[in-house]
Amino acid sequence: MIKTSRPKRQRLKPPVRHQQLSLPQIVATYAYSHMLQSLPSDLVHIELERILADPLFSKSKLLQRLLRLLVNCAEQNLPVTESFLARRLLGLDERDFHPYSNSYVRVIASLLRKRLRQYYARESPIGAILHLPVGGFSLRIEPAHIIDSQWKRLLSQARLLADSCYVEELAEAVALLERIISIKPDFAPAFARLATAHLSLAAHGAPSMPHLQSAVQAAARAIEFAPDSWESLTSAASIAGLVNLEWTHATALFERALAIPGNHVAAHPSFHAYMVAIGRLTELLPLMERSLSESEFPLRALQRNYGICLHIASRFNEAESEMQRTAILFPDDYTVWSWLAIQFWMRDSPDKAIDALNRGVLTARDRMPGQLMASIIESLHGRHTCSSSSLDGSIAELPTVVACAFLGDAETAVAAMCRMAVARNPLIFLLLRSPFIGRLSVSPEFPEVFHSLGIPLPRTDSSPTPNIESRD
Q: Angle at CA 236, nearest 5°, toward 232 and 238?
């Protein structure tokens, strides 16, 4: 008996239904449509023509066609799909277009998205902003003043917080900058400032390596979006020098940033650490003084570091005056008291040094810096030995460095500085140049700290001026 196979029963597919939108999505869609209708059409087209005339777009007819098409669809509130763009841009029949085997539409859309980000990284919008969100093909058109009012307020707050030396305030600065980036994902100054905030976190108590890695990534994005901006170049130079120890490359980047009109490189804390590290303090001080005289309000980091640099230059009376002024202008700044303590101790005023440390403890209250200075006081009073603190981050080595230097235990102090250098704590570059630290040179390991960082040893009167260009 011959068996015959039955034809397989075809399972009927349910009809395709449009995705149900939630109530918040419906409200957001309506609000966007209403906002777009209220935006004058001529503003949109003026912005469109400005973009298309830019070299980023003028040399690509395909990008021009795509952007014009997306603007037209956005104004008519038409849905945009990958197959729709394949038909309108490439002339392909939608039935013959297979997105899994043909990625051309996604590639050109990604290029458009990147070019729009690059454009707005250096150009201010007039009336409207055009951007292509990740994960879709529908263009967003938004009034420029709404976006500007959001991120500018956040940026001013983030800048104030990023000058702090407290982990809590620096973390809040990072959070604000990340919100700015979510609003303006191509805004290079936010990425540059984010790199600085992460470097400060690595210096002042957070685990060093994760924040140094985040700083490297943020600086790279800043350069990607605005390669000729002084802020981008400064953040890239900071990474090259203070993190990668590529001093020649850092010098070239800083010189490019300084050559840009209207730059504020001389007020940047990473520039201060770089100049001190490579032995160019005599050039740095006039730049800082000029920047202070040109500022309507003194910037916290600039004012603080100016006093520290005067101390490093052995101009102790001026340094004390500037540090005292910093404590008045910024009453919550504990760093000036730690540097005053170092200066008082090396000038044979131990009582003043202890008093300064106590002032620092009161200023920082129960936060990490207060614990650090309290640990130094305990060591000086002989209540415990010089050893690494149990606190987090490479800043925990600071009490060991300072207390052991005060007490003449050079071996232990130098070992702690070596650990700070390995962790790439940016404070090590200022600390190593303090005249007080010079007394640790009796340790045979003292030169190794400088060699490991690729920076010259402290100069003596007979030492020649270092040649920066020949140093890697």
A: 120
Average pLDDT, the chain: 83
Alpha carbon distance 252, 259 (integer Å): 11
Taking the C-alpha atoms of residue 91 and residue 74, their distance in angstroms, rounded to an integer, is 21
Encode pLDDT of 290-320 as tens digits: 999 988 788 899 999 999 999 999 999 999 9
pLDDT in tens, 142-163: 776 655 666 778 888 898 899 8
CB 147 within 8 A of CB 65: no
- Residues found in the chain: 472
d(CA 376, CA 397): 11
How many alpha carbons fall within 13 Å on the CB side of residue 276?
28
Q: Phi and psi dihedrals of 229, rounded to 5?
A: -85, 140
Closest residue by Cα to residue 81 from 25, 135, 15: 135
Residue with tokens 């540097």: 339
**Hey, what are 202's tokens?**
């690595």
> Residues 81-93: pLDDT tens digits?
888 888 888 777 7
Instruction: Please tell me whether residue 53 adopts helix, strand or coil conformation.
Output: helix
First to last CA, the chain: 89
SS3 128: strand
What residue ranges define each of the domains in the chain, with the CATH number in brackets? 32-138 (no CATH), 149-263 (1.25.40.10), 295-459+467-472 (1.25.40)
344 residue type, one letter: F
Q: For residue 419, which of 390, 444, 452 has the smallest C-alpha distance?
A: 452
The least confident of 259-263, 382-386, 388-392, 424-428 is 388-392
pLDDT of 368 above 90: no
Please give the backbone phi and psi of residue 130, each rounded to the nearest 5 degrees, phi first: -110, 125
